[in-house]
Amino acid sequence: MLESFFNYLQFEKRYSTHTLTAYSIDLSQFEEYTSTTYETQKLETIEYPIIRSWIISLAEQKLSAKSIHRKVSSVRAYYKYLMRHKLIDKDPTVKIRTPKIPKRLPIYAKEAEMNTVLDAVPNMQEDTFEGVRDKLVIELLYGTGMRLTELIGLEDKDIDLHNQVVKVMGKGNKQRLIPLHNQLVAAIVKYRTIKSQAFPDNNNVAFVVTNKSLKAYPIFINRIVKKNLNLIPTLEKKSPHVLRHSFATNLLNKGADLNAIKELLGHSSLAATQVYTHNSLGKLKQIFDQAHPKAEQKS
Question: If exposure means fewest CB atoms within 10 Å of the residue's CB, which of 4, 101, 179, 269 is most exposed?
Fold first, then answer.
């Protein structure tokens, strides 16, 4: 039964390899718990008290609320699949309640900090392939808000300089178009020129490539981002997703519409985008203090 469930996730839902691996681990651990603790061999016969007992055991192992929530989500998805295909009569996860996940505000770099990074990307002034490529990676992630996987999946044909847009393949194989500002267009033109000079016989369709003209991979991009974000010593985290957060937060601080940011980020719901409003409260208060006639004036 599990095999057909994973086929469904892979070929119908088109989940990523990372997500499929997480589901597999979670369900294997759940299956092991039920078999060793309750000697239950078939997950299709599991009832609510057993699942509740399993969640309690996870909490006793000091797992974080986020980890427990993800594991329960995997199990829920499996039983929903069984219900949808009428393989069970009752969903044992209906009454399940998971620990509340504490809200964490996105970590982001301020506009002035990002300007410092972009002005100081090593080797850019030397016009080396590595320097131009590294700066473009930072520019693309910060200038479009695209995800790491979306950047790696880019092909040359996805860049439309005439209309100044880039086409990205988001979660669930959903495509979206993201505008390119003039500075980013110039960086892309420069990168394409030096890339063709460095690798004249290159047949790789990947847009971002390594120093050996191979398709970029997650660890490779993470190294580039971390190296350059180290220029901001106060930044708690240094990853491609920080640049995505910076893109969204700085747009919101500039007055961009939340729904527009949602579309640019490729979020399926506005709730996922609203987390950035918390980071903008300080900016809103500053505007309030400066503009409201009744705001207390600082001496």
Answer: 269
